[in-house]
Amino acid sequence: YAAKQRNDGAVIYDAAMDKSSAQSLSLLTELRNAVERNELRLHVQPKISLATGMVVGMESLVRWMHPERGNVFPDEFIPFAEQTGFIRVLTRWVMEKSAELCGELAAQGHHLKVSVNLSTRDLMDQDLPVMFADLLARHKLTPGSFCLEITESAIMDDPVRAQHTLERLSAMGLDLSIDDFGTGYSSLAYLKRLPVNELKIDKSFVLNMEKDEGDTKIVRSTIDLGHNMGLRVVAEGIESEAVWRLLAELGCDQGQGYFMSRPIPGDQMIAWLEKWQAPANLVAAAAGNEV
Ligand code: C2E
Ligand code: MG
Ligand code: MG
Ligand code: MG
Q1: Per-residue pLDDT tens for 45-98?
Q2: Residues 6+ apart with CB under 8 A from 222
Q3: Alpha-carbon gap, residue 256 to 244, rounded angstroms
Q4: What ligand has the least distance to the C-alpha of 75?
Q5: 270: Cβ–Cβ under 8 A, 6 or more apart, which residues?
Q6: How far is the CA of 149 from the centre of ligand 2 (A)?
Q7: Looking at this predicted complex, what is its ipTM?
Q8: Are 143 and 111 in contact (CB under 8 A)?
Q9: Nearest Cα to 141, choosing from 150, 133, 149?
Q10: Residue 224's pLDDT is what?
Q11: Nearest to 190 by CA among 157, 223, 219
Q12: CA of 130 to the centre of ligand 4 (A)
């Protein structure tokens, strides 16, 4: 069935479009069907306090289990979803699954804040705040159990409308985070205007920071900037003990990365949480002389 749909798409559009457009089109058709075919998966990556090693949250990262292509990563299909408006459906699906998981974990005594990525289009969606209110009520979650991650570029696309949406969401009590901080075209002025709670340092600055003096300087300045503005600062892309230690020394509040855990299927999170133990040397070092 999937193959037939793809062929249909190719037959109709091949004449008019180049090969890559035809491929995009088939991907899009398939993506449209991915929800009802149950091909989307919610993965989550734990967010950890770098000083205490405690798990404080998790980020929802969507995966598409394509019947032939295998695991398709979001960088490949989110841009499509955005261009076509399918992102609305996708975002709602991710929200729903995230709320479900958050409720399940809370019932087991694990109270984690769940972070969900929003795209440019989502910020233009005037129904989003209403949708959220409904979601929280149905899952009996407090607004504080959600954090919404938005990139600088998504905000700068239409800063006025973005600010309007973000103010409504923030007024409801949801946390807002600036994702991939430092990589987009942006102005620092919005940091002062927007109701943001968190800065997320992009992994490109973090991955090799223990070896790269320039990266370390950027990370240090970003942590200071965030803290001076009263924001929580999170680093993504922590792949080694050395980077965790360095970030903790610089005062970075939280971190995510392969060193702690890759993104894992949502239904494995409870088992992961029950096994998690922060490396004692890191946590003791960060906590000072409390050992
Ligand atoms: P992001 O929000 O900045 O997410 C962080 C990305 O870094 C994730 O890639 C994550 O798997 C990866 N990562 C985490 N720790 C490490 C590490 O230690 N080393 C390395 N090399 N990578 C690490 P992923 O899952 O492929 O997602 C890519 C991007 O796709 C996300 O970047 C986000 O912008 C977007 N995305 C993912 N899920 C959604 C979604 O549900 N909705 C929207 N709108 N965008 C999404
Ligand atoms: Mg993110
Ligand atoms: Mg990011
Ligand atoms: Mg990113």
Answers
A1: 999 999 999 999 999 999 999 988 898 899 989 988 998 889 999 999 999 999
A2: 181, 182, 199, 201, 205, 233
A3: 9
A4: 1
A5: 104, 105, 108, 110
A6: 6
A7: 0.98
A8: no
A9: 133
A10: 97
A11: 157
A12: 27
Quote the tokens at residue 65: 């289990």
Q: Give every CB contact of residue 42 below 8 A, 6+ residues apart in sequence.
A: 60, 62, 63, 94, 97, 98, 101, 265, 266
Return the residue whose CA atom lies nearest to atom 21 of ligand 1. 237
Contacts by 60-63, CB closer than 8 A, 24 or more apart: 60/94, 60/97, 60/98, 60/101, 60/114, 60/115, 60/116, 60/117, 60/266, 61/117, 61/263, 62/90, 62/93, 62/94, 63/263
Q: What is the DSSP string of 37-92?
A: TT-EEEEEEEEEETTT--EEEEEEEEEEEETTTEEE-HHHHHHHHHHHTTHHHHHH
Distance, in Å, from the CA atom of 56 to the CA atom of 21, rounded to the nearest integer, reads 42
User: Does the C-beta of 152 come closer than 6 Å to ligand 1?
Assistant: no
With residue 232 as reference, give the H or E element that holds it: strand 232-235
**pLDDT tens, 120-138?**
899 999 899 999 999 999 9
Average pLDDT score over residue span 227-253: 97
pTM: 0.91
What single letter denotes the amino acid at residue 157? D
Closest ligand, as measured to the CA of 40: 1
Regarding the beta carbon of 261 and ligand 1, being less than 6 Å apart is answered: no
| CA of 12 relative to ligand 2 center, distance in Å | 37
Which of 20-24, 45-49, 233-237, 281-285 comes out lowest in average pLDDT?
Answer: 20-24
Ligand 3 centroid–CA 120 distance in Å is 15
The number of C-alpha atoms within 13 Å of 69 and in the hemisphere containing its C-beta is: 19
**What does DSSP assign to residue 253?**
-
Smallest Cα–Cα separation from 72: which of 98, 97, 43? 43
Residue nearest to atom 10 of ligand 1 (CA): 263
